[in-house]
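User: Reviewer 2 asked us to show a designed sequence for the structure in our supplementary figure. I'm pasting the structure tokens here. Could you produce the per-position amino acids so we can include them in the response letter?
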């Protein structure tokens, strides 16, 4: 899972993957194998690959995470970039425009035709990314003006998929 950690006005790319009995965590260009165990409602035990172990207190409210460890306290906001992009599209209101790929992937199916009227939330196409099929939906009501992809196409994140007027 790819996330963004926002700490003191700095955004850090974070990737978390299940690995053996724990997780592989990538922070920027640094990679760690970790094991995280819930030791109570707010208490966690964090063990690194080299055997170093830490006890920490973790409290979460929405996207904000407060972490206390060894007398230090930090607050970090964890952001799902897909939700952030989805929200920014929703905030665009009734404006049409180009719907773009949120991440690299392969087009599996096209669910609409050029000239078709769509409502906000109507499925436009299926994009396979990270071994999951994701339905890309219309962010606004409108008419499909142009479809830029076809089934089987591979697209990069940010690639234009569909134009809605």
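Assistant: Here is a per-position design you can include in the supplement:
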């Amino acid at each position: 899972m790819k996330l963004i950690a926002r700490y003191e006005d700095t955004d850090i790319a974070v990737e978390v993957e299940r690995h053996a009995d724990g997780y592989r965590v990538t922070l920027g260009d640094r990679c760690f194998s970790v094991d995280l165990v819930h030791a109570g409602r707010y208490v966690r035990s964090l063990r690194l690959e080299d055997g170093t172990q830490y006890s920490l207190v973790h409290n979460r409210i929405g996207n904000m995470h407060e972490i206390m460890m060894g007398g230090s306290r930090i607050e970090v906001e964890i952001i799902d970039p897909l939700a952030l992009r989805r929200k920014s599209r929703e905030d665009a209101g009734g404006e049409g425009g180009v719907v773009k790929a949120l991440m690299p992937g392969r087009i599996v199916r096209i669910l609409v035709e050029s000239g078709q009227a769509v409502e906000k939330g109507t499925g436009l196409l299926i994009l396979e990314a990270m071994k999951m099929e994701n339905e890309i939906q219309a962010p606004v009501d409108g008419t499909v003006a142009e479809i830029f992809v076809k089934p089987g196409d591979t697209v990069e994140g940010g690639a234009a998929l569909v134009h809605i007027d």
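For the response letter, you might also mention the following. The radius of gyration is 20 Å. The chain has two domains: 2-79, 92-164.
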